[in-house]
Amino acid sequence: MPASVGRERVVELCARVEGERGRVVVCDVGAVEEPGLGVVEVLARMELAARRRGGRIRLRGPGAALLALLDFVGLRLQVEGEVEEGEPALGVEEAVETGDPAP
């Protein structure tokens, strides 16, 4: 995603996300150095478009300022390399005790 995005580009990005029905769409935000509410709006619209079609967006390369701003406004987005809620980290296995009932 470029550092600044115009309205017509937002419509195009949302349409592309909607076209990926039920998939996770990776959005590279590494170029966003000084995020503002405009960037938050674009990401929120993209996430909404993805969720309407059963998907999600996942951020690649977000800076600390963008993550802080997203947290401040309460927009929870997936970030590449982070463990999703409810999933164990890679390489972590759940222990099973003998005699435990099967799930």
Automatic annotation (TrEMBL):
Domain spans labelled MlaB-like STAS: 7-75
InterPro entries: MlaB-like_STAS, STAS_dom_sf
Protein name as annotated: STAS domain-containing protein
Source species of the chain: Streptomyces pyxinicus
